[in-house]
Design goal:
5-stranded parallel β-sheet; alpha/beta; 14 strands; Rossmann fold; 45% helix
């Protein structure tokens, strides 16, 4: 059964601490297996990728790892028109939001006469990992590829497993719409290794983003440093803060919208209404029986769900910040005022008519968000994740004479005489 806590009950702090400290992503250690796969791909390249694809995906890719562009066009044509229209709506909104994230450079001359600046440039190549099989999410293709395209990345590569040769047509349609330039029908740790180190067929990329299973996550962890990565994402999370004026059926649906993702997902309700809490719990039970993924959702809710009762909703802000949820819904009278008290959350959904699910698809902001309390120190995926900032410095002789002596003093204090001399030699030959 989901956890029930009351803010005023004895032992609340201890019980709350224990709840938020729970590991939900505990799995068998796959680091050794992944290390072997990564090493094999580095050594044997295409041959290793083909072997693993045959073993894990039951697919012979000896004829080529890259998906034929004609198959992408055919996939788009096979999708129902209403799905393509919805995809186009989502893509347009995601693109419009992310275009507003493009950073401006800076350039100025300070009071010492030193010209300073910073400029932003895109990375050269991005690798987008997309799960295959039952976990095929066209929306994630848009959320990963569109920011890369907006940033100006010239080469956007997608790796997607196609077990038994089956590809999700809408995933391919999304890739075409989002500006993906290459698609390879490979997955798992071998795909991550191929993107990171390159093979005869696949040129290496600069950064890898996108969700995946434990093997994909571990592979991203192991190749980090050779390439950049977005994050190591854990199970999905939602926290709903709701007052008594809500329809409990709405809140129940919101909580289950994340519970159905994975048995390790976390759904939390914080409310000041005992009646609403009971009604939401009853609503979840009623709704579970109607969900195709009811077994997953039920286990998630019973193992990791929680209902927390507080006597004043504004006290909930402290609890929210400690949980640092991936998704935060504020179904309260003054959501904007409440949001001002929140410092740790991946994304905030304001008001009773803004379900988190709208953010997963068509709102515009990215749905790739920090999990497992990492919203304390990180942000969701965005355009800047596919760009680099380069600083610029320019001194003339006068400017160097003003700031150089301080540099010499500090260099000598650190015992780096060549640093000091590199400045001094210019100061003495003006």
């Amino acid at each position: 059964m989901p956890l029930r806590l009351s803010h005023n009950a004895a032992g609340f702090s201890e019980d709350f601490d224990a709840y938020i400290s729970r590991r939900r992503d505990v799995a068998e250690d796959v680091s050794g297996i992944v290390a072997d796969i990564v090493a094999d791909v580095r050594q044997r390249g295409d041959a290793a990728v083909m072997d693993y694809t045959s073993r894990f995906d039951r697919l012979d890719v000896s004829g080529g790892l890259r998906l034929d562009p004609s198959l992408i066009e055919a996939a788009r044509d096979a999708c129902p028109p209403e799905q393509i229209a919805a995809l186009e709506t989502a893509a347009a909104r995601i693109r419009a939001f992310h275009e507003r994230q493009l950073p401006d450079g800076i350039a100025f001359t300070d009071s010492d006469g030193v010209r300073l600046g910073a400029r932003w440039t895109p990375i050269s190549a991005a690798g987008i990992y997309v799960p295959g099989g039952t976990a095929a999410y066209p929306s994630s293709v848009l959320m990963n590829a569109i920011p890369a395209a907006v940033a100006g990345v010239s080469r956007v590569v997608m790796a997607v497993p196609t077990p038994d040769g089956e590809a999700n047509p809408l995933v391919l349609a999304a890739a075409h719409l989002a500006g993906v330039t290459e698609i390879y029908r490979i997955g798992g740790a071998q795909a991550v290794a191929a993107l990171a180190f390159g093979t005869d067929t696949i040129a290496p990329v600069d950064k890898i983003t996108g969700p995946g299973n434990a093997f994909v996550a571990e592979a991203k962890r192991q190749v980090f440093g050779t390439v950049g990565i977005d994050m190591i994402a854990g199970p999905s999370e939602i926290l709903v803060v709701a007052d008594a004026e809500n329809d409990p059926a709405w809140i129940a649906a919101d909580l289950l919208s994340q519970a159905e993702h994975d048995t390790s997902s976390q759904s939390v309700l914080i409310t000041d209404s005992g009646a609403l809490a009971d009604a939401v719990a009853d609503g979840i039970e009623s709704l579970l029986g109607n969900l195709p993924r009811h077994d997953i959702a039920r286990q998630s809710w019973e193992d990791h769900g929680a209902i927390i009762l507080v006597d004043n909703l504004f006290r909930a802000a402290e609890l929210v910040n400690r949980i640092a949820p991936e998704h935060l819904e504020l179904a309260v009278e003054d959501p904007d005022g409440f949001a001002e008290k929140i410092t740790h959350a991946g994304a905030i959904f304001l008001g009773r008519h803004t379900p988190e699910a709208i953010g997963d698809y068509v709102a515009g902001p990215n749905h790739v968000l920090p999990t497992a309390q990492s919203a304390r120190f990180s942000s969701g995926l965005g355009v800047i994740d596919f760009m680099k900032r380069t600083t610029l410095v320019s001194c003339d002789a006068d400017a160097l004479s003003r700031i150089g002596p301080a540099a010499v003093t500090l260099a000598e204090a650190e015992g780096l005489d060549a640093h000091a001399w590199a400045v001094t030699v210019r100061l003495t030959k003006r």
